[in-house]
Structures are given as C-alpha cells and as structure tokens.
Amino acid sequence: MNKFKTIAIAALSLLCIYTAKAQSFKEPVGYKLKNGMNIIISENDQSPKAYSSFTLDSKAFGDKKDGVVELLNAVLNENAGKNPNISFNDNSAKLATSSADLEKDLVLMGELIQHATIDQHTFNTAKAKLVMSLKLHDYDYDQTVNENSINALTLEDVRSFYRQLSPEKTFLTIAGAVELNTAKASAKKAFGNWNRKQEPALTVAK
To answer: What does pTM read for this prediction?
Structure first.
C-alpha cells in the first residue's frame, strides 16, 4: 500500500492544479482490477469537479526511447480531438469533468487509451505539433524531450511502445466530487475489460 500512497499523493497533487484552491481529499482507497490495473480513489465532497489521472508506472518502462512517451501523448491528443475535458501530457492522461459525467468521460478516456489510432497521418500531425511546441518553448517538457529526440522517433517506435502498455503497468486515480462505490463502478466499466496485449488501430476509426 505504500506504493499506492506514493502514487496517490503525486497524482492528487496534479489533480489539484485544476482547482483555484487546494482541496482536502479523504484518505485514498487503493485496490486492483482483475486485470492488474492499480486504482486509487479519494473522495472530496467540497470539490467542484471530479478528476482522474491515468499514469504509467515509470519503473515498468525503463528502457523506453527518449521522447516516445510525449510523442505518444501527442498522438493520443490527436485521437481526443477537441475534447476539453481530456488531455495527455508528461507521464499521464488527465480528466476534469462534472460528477454526473464522470463515467461517460472516463469510458471515453479509456477507449482513447485502449484503442488508439496510430497511423501515419495521425503520427505526422502529432509529431509536427510537438516539434512546433518545442520550438515555441510553450511547455516545460522533460529534458529528454527535445527536437532531436522527437525527430529521431519513427511511427514504429510509437507503435512498439504503445504495445507495451498493459493494465498492471498503470495507475488510475479518481478524486474530487466522487462517491467511492460509483467511482469503483466507473473505473471497472472504463478499464475492466482491458486486455494485457495492446494493439494500435492502423487506420482512422470511423
């Protein structure tokens, strides 16, 4: 449970950025889905919204290529389109929504993660946007994320890393204006059927 708490504290700190003032969360509840995915839930009935963070266990991806996580994030942002509630950056996906829409938006985030379209067009668009962002210095990226590392990555590099994603290598944090049992049901619906083998879609979804 110490590992759960460490991840929970980090994730909750990130989720609090969404709010104008610091929030007081209840003691996190940690457990695993049957597929091995780590779930952390912390209720706060004073929070204006429900928040969720999908985070990779960095220790499980120690041999990854420089910049590949951020380029995959850029590809996933292309998949998400203009959805204002979901974003992918750094080592995680982030969701901020109303309590009533938590399940719907969490399921959508789960679909984006589990069934991403990673074709040449999406890759080229995402890569170009990420390189432009690096040129503009409009985000504080990790030092391994630079023009050289991103330009060196190929479509197959991103697909190969994506195929390594599996439930037991990830954490899902749900916090804020949520009720424990409802949040548990939403997590199960969004990620409970996720298989350990991850395959990208090679063509644009209709």
So the answer is: 0.85
